[in-house]
Design a protein that fits this description.
The chain is mostly helical. It has six helices and no strands. Helix 2 (17-41) packs parallel to helix 6 (122-167) and helix 4 packs antiparallel against helix 6 (122-167). The chain is elongated and about 85 Å long.
């Protein structure tokens, strides 16, 4: 266990301060994704069952007023389904941008080393190059993992809304 923590600490030291920010961003993004998954398979299903039973218990399911109530029920469920999806999508978009910022700060360090030493010594520039490339890689990996999860959540949300609209049919 200690070796694992030590390896992570060395990786963070190699990547620079931006890597810590990217790691925190990815952690928050995945916590939000897991919260959405648990919501969809838990609380959302209970809310849908409650909404469907309330709809079927209504005596009026054909009037204009009933249609407005139906739309309100669907809107409430839709809002609860999509509540954190925009935040997740924004975090996915931020990951590569932070990686790019790590690249820029790492390259600035490389140029500083070149200016101080007056040569292109590869050993003296290695630290800056690793600080330039590792955050880029971390940002891309975080964004790719988040894109797949965000796409799945968006599709699941659309399917759940369509299914709810079918379950809350208007009487003719």
């Amino acid at each position: 266990m200690f070796e694992f923590v030590e390896t992570i600490r060395e990786f963070l030291d190699t990547g620079g301060q931006v890597l810590v920010v990217i790691g925190a961003l990815i952690l928050v993004m995945w916590l939000l994704i897991l919260e959405r998954v648990m919501f969809i398979f838990g609380q959302h299903r209970l809310a849908v069952a409650h909404t469907v039973s309330r709809w079927h218990a209504r005596s009026d399911q054909a009037s204009w007023h009933a249609e407005q109530i139906r739309q309100a029920m669907i809107s409430r469920i839709s809002l609860s389904l999509d509540s954190t999806l925009p935040i997740i999508q924004a975090l996915v978009a931020l990951c590569p941008l932070l990686g790019l910022m790590g690249t820029v700060t790492g390259m600035i360090e490389v140029f500083d080393v070149m200016a101080i030493s007056g040569s292109g010594n590869a050993r003296s520039m290695a630290s800056g190059v690793s600080k330039a490339t590792i955050p880029t890689m971390a940002g891309m990996v975080g964004a790719l993992s988040g894109v797949f999860a965000a796409t799945w959540l968006t599709r699941k949300s659309k399917r759940e809304k369509a299914k709810l609209e079918q379950q809350l049919e208007l009487a003719h």
